[in-house]
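Thread title: Can someone regenerate the structure for this chain?

I was given the following input by a collaborator and told the matching structure tokens would be attached. They weren't. Posting the sequence so someone can regenerate them.
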Amino acid sequence: MYNRHAISSETESTGTFEIKTGIVIEPVAEFPDYCSDCGEKVLNLCPECSHPIEAANQKTAGDESDRPNFCSGCGVDFPWTSTIESEVSRDGSFIDIEETEVEGQFYPDLISEINLSYRVQADHATLILNRKLIESLLTDILKAEFGYENVDVFFDGERSQFYGLKQLIKRFKENEAELSKHSGSLGEDLYRQIRVLKHDGDAAAHVIEDTIQEEELQEKSGTATRVVKVLLSMRESAWTMTN
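Best answer:
Regenerated them for you:
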């Protein structure tokens, strides 16, 4: 087994090695065979090319961000990067969109998180995160179209917070004439699908017992993909036209 906690690097001044345990970085004369934190075998060389595993930042103690995910010698990913993926028990994606085709970082990352939750069968998390995705997209579209000079369209000044999904759907319907230039799909059918996905996310978060059948989840996946594709296209159009 590989140790997910310990990584090593050779110091320039003494030629000794440092073992990062995830709590402190301690200079030692040689590598221990096993990690004192978890008992797993210490991995200090790339299993693919035997290149030494080097800390990303030797000056920061106790920060797991120092631990590299890929070998600087051959580029292979280290075993600890596949811990979650090893739990995958379902193929495919809930949102059938290539993350690389979506601009920015927030939305690709969120879509990736939704799809990973789906693959490991964290179905309630999938529906909750999908609700967050749709709410964020609606807010972004209204923000791009109307700007902060009309902040009341998407922001509740009395509560000092962005509107929730129910209110955002209402705002979309009220401003459909202005928003329709970004998509020909606006209309009651789209709003109905969004309300269904909102209900799914709400139920996943608040209903004590809510068993989701596989066939039902596949249907939700198709609906979510259609809605998200429309909203991503509208978002891109709105930001392009206003910037």
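The chain is about 40% helix and 5% strand.
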